[in-house]
C-alpha cells in the first residue's frame, strides 16, 4: 500500500480548515455531558457549563470559564486534569448519544477532497483527542490524518491562535510559507469568523449550527451557505461536483 505522505497532493484551490461542531457533526450533547461529568468527579461542581457560552469557544477557554463561575482557583494542573478526564469520558458519551450525526454533505465532501488529493485539515476549538473521538464516531477522522491534521483547542485558549497553528502545520506540510488568503476556514459561528479574520484568513460560514445565514453574514463571513451539500459550497472550495 502506498504511503499517503508520498502521494503528491492536488494544490488547486485553497487549503481548507474545518471547524467540527455544528460544521461537520452534531454530537448530540456528548461533549457537554462528558465535561460536566469530569467537573463533578474532580471538583464537585454540578452543571459546570450552566451560563458558559459554548458556541465557537475553545475547550480550554470553556474549562477556565466554568472553573471561574464555580468559584475555583484556575491552575494549569487542574485544567489539565479536567481535560484529560473529559477526553477519557467522551468516547462513551458519543457512543450513547442518540443525536450524534454527520451533517448533510459532509461524508461525500470529505471523500471528494481525499479522492482529489486536496490538502485540508481542522481548525477547531476541540483539543486533539476530543476532535479525534468526535470524528472517529462518524468514521471520518482518518481523512484528517492524511496530511497535516490542523489546529486544535490544545494549541491555545484563544481561537485565533488555533488558526495560526493550523497555518503553521500546513506550511510545514507544504514545505514553504503560505499567505493567509491561500487558506479558507469553514465554520458555523461568529467566533470562527472573527478568529480567522484576525489572522487574515477568509471564511466560508455554514448555517448548520445555532446561527442563521443572516447572522453569519452580519458577523462578517466572506461567504455563507446553508449546507456543505450545496453546489455553491463545492464551487467555493474548488471541489469537483
Task: Give a short summary of the structure.
This protein has about 240 residues and is α/β, with parallel strands linked by helices.
Features:
241 residues; alpha/beta; Rossmann fold; DNA polymerase, domain 1; 2 domains; six-stranded parallel sheet; two-stranded antiparallel ribbon; 8 strands; 43% helix; disordered N terminus
Task: Report the C-alpha radius of gyration, rounded.
Answer: 17 Å
Helix content: 40-55%
- The assigned CATH architecture of the largest domain is 3-Layer(aba) Sandwich
CATH T-level fold name of the largest domain:
Rossmann fold
Low-confidence runs: 1-8
- Tell me the quaternary state: single chain
Helical segment count: 9
State the distance separating the first and last CA atoms.
Answer: 28 Å
Give the full name of the CATH homologous superfamily of the largest domain: HAD superfamily/HAD-like
Could you describe the 3D structure shown?
With 241 residues, this protein is α/β, with parallel strands linked by helices. It folds into 2 domains: 4-27 and 101-236, Rossmann fold (3-Layer(aba) Sandwich); 30-96, DNA polymerase, domain 1 (Orthogonal Bundle), CATH 1.10.150. Helix content is 43%, strand content 12%. The protein is built from 9 helices and 8 strands. The protein has helices at residues 30-43, 59-69, 76-96, 106-115, 128-137, 159-174, 190-199, 213-218, 231-236; strands spanning 15-18, 25-27, 100-102, 120-123, 150-151, 183-187, 203-206, 223-225. It has a 6-stranded parallel β-sheet with strand order 5-4-1-6-7-8. α1 crosses α3. Mean pLDDT is 93; it is low at 1-8.
Amino acid at each position: 500500500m502506498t504511503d499517503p505522505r508520498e502521494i503528491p497532493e492536488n494544490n488547486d484551490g485553497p487549503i481548507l480548515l474545518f471547524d467540527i461542531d455544528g460544521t461537520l457533526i452534531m454530537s448530540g450533547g456528548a461533549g457537554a455531558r462528558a465535561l460536566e461529568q469530569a467537573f463533578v468527579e474532580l471538583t464537585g461542581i454540578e452543571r459546570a457549563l450552566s451560563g458558559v457560552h459554548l458556541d465557537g469557544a475553545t475547550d480550554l477557554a470553556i474549562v477556565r470559564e466554568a472553573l471561574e463561575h464555580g468559584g475555583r482557583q484556575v491552575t494549569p494542573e487542574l485544567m489539565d486534569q479536567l481535560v484529560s478526564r473529559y477526553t477519557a469520558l467522551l468516547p462513551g458519551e458519543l457512543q450513547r448519544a442518540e443525536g450524534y450525526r454527520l451533517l448533510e454533505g459532509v461524508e461525500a465532501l470529505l471523500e471528494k477532497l481525499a479522492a482529489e488529493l486536496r490538502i485540508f485539515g481542522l481548525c477547531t476549538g476541540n483539543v486533539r483527542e476530543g476532535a479525534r473521538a468526535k470524528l472517529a464516531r462518524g468514521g471520518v477522522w482518518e481523512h484528517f490524518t492524511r496530511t497535516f491534521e490542523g489546529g486544535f483547542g490544545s494549541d491555545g485558549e484563544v481561537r485565533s491562535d488555533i488558526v495560526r497553528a493550523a497555518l503553521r502545520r500546513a506550511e510545514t506540510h507544504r514545505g514553504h510559507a503560505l499567505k493567509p488568503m491561500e487558506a479558507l476556514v469553514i465554520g458555523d459561528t461568529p467566533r470562527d469568523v472573527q478568529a480567522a479574520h484576525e489572522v487574515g484568513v477568509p471564511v466560508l460560514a455554514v448555517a448548520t449550527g445555532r446561527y442563521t445565514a443572516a447572522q453569519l453574514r452580519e458577523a462578517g463571513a466572506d461567504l455563507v451557505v446553508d449546507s456543505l451539500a450545496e453546489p455553491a459550497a463545492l464551487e467555493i472550495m474548488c471541489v469537483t461536483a
